[in-house]
Amino acid sequence: MLQFSFVRNFLFGLSVLLISSCGLEQSTRTEIDLLGTTCTVTVYARNPGPILEKGFTRVREIDRRMSYAGSESEVAAVNRNAGAEGVKVSSSTLDVVQRGLYFSELGKGSFDISIGPLVELWGIGKESTGRIPTGEEIEKAVLRIGYKRVQVKDNSVRLEDPGMAIDLGGIAKGYAADEIVRILEEEGVQHALINLGGNVYAHGKKPDGTLWRIGVQNPESNRGSYLGVLTVADRAVVTSGPYERYFIENGKRYHHILDPETGFPVENGVSSVTIVAENSMDADALSTLVFVRGVEKGLALVESLDGVEALLVTEEKELFTSSGIEAIFSITDDQFSL
Ligand code: ADP
Ligand code: MG
Q1: What is the pLDDT of residues 6-37, one digit of tens each?
Q2: pLDDT by residue (tens digit) across 259-314?
Q3: What is d(CA 178, CA 173) in angstroms, rounded to the nearest whole number?
Q4: pLDDT of residue 21
């Protein structure tokens, strides 16, 4: 392999590597501040530049339409109209809202796309640091949550009551990853690795014919230190954990996965959930959903779904997994045990 060129500026990084044996170039592009996170895509193709451009253009479009705020956001428009008439949205946003409602129902409200008022109240992960809300504020926000009061009709989304707000932060990154995969398939790309802020998708196998090895982050350690490895092809691997977005007050950590019932960050001893599934949107929603439900109920739900596997890490450094994970997972850090 030969290093071909390397370019980096403020907005994105791009690196191209020529794999001489099969005429494919390996090209990686990174953009920060996209979907509220860092997005990296590596493709192996004859002419990767335009393919990456097409993929990132689509992700930017999804970001514009589905971000919580923003002048062109369809989500923001729906929320502004809460309690009034429905708002027409693009078929993309409609797809994500509908799948989000499906998982809200499946998780009996532990995952709920109408969590907006609570996310806004806690402000975790936003530029201005979050704060602990008062009991009264939490009560008020919790009453505004309820996916059953989100109506989808024709091409529009309507929130029944004023003050309600949808937030697609727990599912939109997954949709974006699936959209990149769709574009890669259209372009005939056979090998690629996508990582949209922890939403990883391994497309095909590696160019050398072996499976991708995806590290599972040690939730108690620095980014990039792994507790184990998943070996996969054509699979989404999505991890949700409280260690990426949080604030600390009086020595206590308040993180961004919220329990719609209590109105507080989930505290159930789970420190991360990794989902392996065929598509990233489902894996994304499920990683958040299983996190909220906890070890027992979360795993029971995963076992009832076809083609989905889960790996939960607890604060006690114990691992709990679904039955099919053994074939694809190995522990690399012996502090952790099954
Ligand atoms: P990350 O965004 O760090 O990958 P997740 O996929 O778990 O993590 O999504 C967390 C985001 O989902 C939060 O930032 C918030 O926007 C939203 N969210 C938080 N709690 C819930 C919940 N119970 N149901 C649905 N969405 C949630
Ligand atoms: Mg998620």
Answers
A1: 333 334 567 767 665 578 999 999 999 999 99
A2: 999 999 999 999 999 999 999 999 999 999 999 999 999 999 999 999 999 999 99
A3: 9
A4: 54
Q: Which atom of ligand 1 sits closest to the CA of residue 169?
A: 16
Among protein residues, the one whose CA lies closest to atom 27 of ligand 1: 170
- Name the packing angle between helices 48-66 and 91-106 (round to 10°): 70
Mention the CATH class of domain 14-63+190-331. alpha beta
Q: Which residues of 134-150 are buried (b: 16+ CB within 10 A; e: fewer)?
A: eeeebebbbebbbbeeb
Question: Is the minimum distance from the CB of 260 to ligand 1 under 6 angstroms?
Answer: yes
Percentage of the chain lying above the pLDDT 70 cut: 93
Among 288, 290, 297, which residue has the most ligand 1 atoms within 8 Å of its CB, making it the best to mutate? 288
Residue pair 338/321 in contact by the 8 Å Cβ criterion: yes
Give the pLDDT confidence of 132-147 residue by residue, as tens digits: 999 999 999 999 999 9
User: Residue ranges per domain, the chain?
Assistant: 14-63+190-331
For residues 286 and 104, what is the distance between their CA atoms, to the nearest angstrom? 10
- Mutual angle of helices 48-66 and 172-186, in 10-degree steps: 150
In a mutational test of the pocket of ligand 1, which residue from 110, 115, 138, 175 has the highest number of ligand atoms less than 8 Å from its CB? 115
Distance of CA 336 to the CA centre of its chain: 24
pLDDT value of position 224: 81
Six token digits for residue 233: 């092809």
Nearest CA to ligand 1 atom 16: 169
Whether 241 is in the pocket of ligand 1, judged by its Cβ within 6 Å, is: no
Name the residue type at position 278.
E
Two structure tokens written together for 129: 């640091």
The rounded Å distance from CA 271 to ligand 2 centre is 14
